[in-house]
């Protein structure tokens, strides 16, 4: 059964080592002048003279099939970092992240695609990684081609695509195989009108199959429509966790 368990997750990024006196002084000045709650308040100095950004602190939650989680928070709150931690791109400094089930990610537009290869070749590569049969590969090819609607670009190298075209292909691929867990950053929703309608239909169809969705978005209407639960991140911590309407009501008036 697919699930996500995040337990006391902490993610830090080292910024500077204390080699440079002027740098140290600059950071020291900044740290002492910060107001509590300001966006940069998670800059800290550790015992080894390093300045680190403490991006996520003490994050715990779990998700079961059918749950669709929206992540909200101001710029820099830690939403993308949390998604990347779930995807295994970042290792926890402390705590643990456990995902059970097949995972699909829509986090960056390249999606591990080889830009030197054509769209069609990338589909075959994707099929090869997924261990698909010849028949399944042909189906995947047909399905993604119809969805991405790239015309003759399908047989051109991905490096010749616009960013919107790359998103179409990436979205088509990531949603073709119905992963049990889908991790998605909101800018994937930034396609043109007709594509957006198709993308939503396809994603909604996936989510209905008791999969787990985690999406980061600044759009309250998406949260209300797609999510069963919302976590509000503030300066790397969970400020509120609950049903979309409850969390959004407080968030939008804060
Ligand atoms: N590799 C890194 N090195 C240092 N700091 C980083 C790194 N990645 C992210 N950060 C910092 O971590 C904080 C959280 O970034 P993140 O991208 O997760 O925020 P976000 O909530 O997704 O923001 P936005 O809504 O603007 O996309 C920010 O202060 C950012 O500058």
From TrEMBL:
Entry keyword Protein transport: no
Q: Which organism is it from?
A: Gluconobacter cerinus
Q: Name one GO cellular component term.
A: membrane
**Any idea which GO molecular function terms this record carries?**
ABC-type transporter activity; ATP binding; ATP hydrolysis activity
**Protein name, entry field:** ABC transporter ATP-binding protein
- Family per UniProt? Belongs to the ABC transporter superfamily.
Q: Which UniProt keywords apply?
A: ATP-binding, Nucleotide-binding, Transport
Q: Which PROSITE patterns match?
A: ABC_TRANSPORTER_2
Species lineage: Bacteria, Pseudomonadati, Pseudomonadota, Alphaproteobacteria, Acetobacterales
Q: Where is the ABC transporter domain?
A: 41-252
Q: Which Pfam families match?
A: ABC_tran
Q: Does the keyword Transport apply?
A: yes
Fetch the CDD domains from UniProt: ABC_KpsT_Wzt
């Amino acid at each position: 059964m697919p699930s996500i368990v995040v337990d006391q997750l902490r993610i830090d990024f080292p910024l500077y080592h204390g080699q440079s006196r002027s740098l140290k002084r600059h950071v020291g000045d900044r740290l002492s002048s910060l107001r509590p709650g300001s966006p940069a308040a998670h800059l800290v100095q550790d015992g080894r003279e390093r300045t680190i950004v403490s991006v996520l602190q003490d994050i715990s939650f779990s998700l079961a099939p059918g749950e669709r989680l929206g992540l909200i928070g101001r710029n820099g709150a830690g939403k993308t970092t949390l998604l990347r931690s779930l995807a295994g791109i970042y290792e926890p400094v402390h705590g643990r992240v456990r995902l059970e089930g097949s995972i699909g990610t829509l986090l960056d537009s390249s999606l591990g695609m080889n830009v030197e290869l054509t769209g069609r070749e990338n589909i075959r590569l994707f099929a090869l990684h997924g261990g698909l049969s010849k028949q399944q590969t042909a189906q995947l090819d047909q399905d993604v081609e119809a969805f991405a609607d790239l015309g003759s670009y399908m047989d051109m190298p991905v490096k010749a695509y616009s960013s919107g075209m790359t998103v179409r292909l990436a979205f088509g691929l990531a949603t073709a195989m119905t992963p049990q867990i889908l991790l998605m950053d909101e800018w994937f929703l930034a396609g043109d009108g007709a594509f957006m309608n198709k993308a939503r239909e396809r994603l909604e169809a996936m989510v209905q199959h008791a999969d787990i969705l985690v999406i980061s978005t600044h759009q309250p209407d998406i949260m209300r429509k797609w999510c069963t639960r919302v976590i509000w991140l503030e300066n790397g911590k969970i400020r509120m966790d609950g049903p979309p309407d409850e969390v959004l009501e407080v968030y939008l008036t804060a």
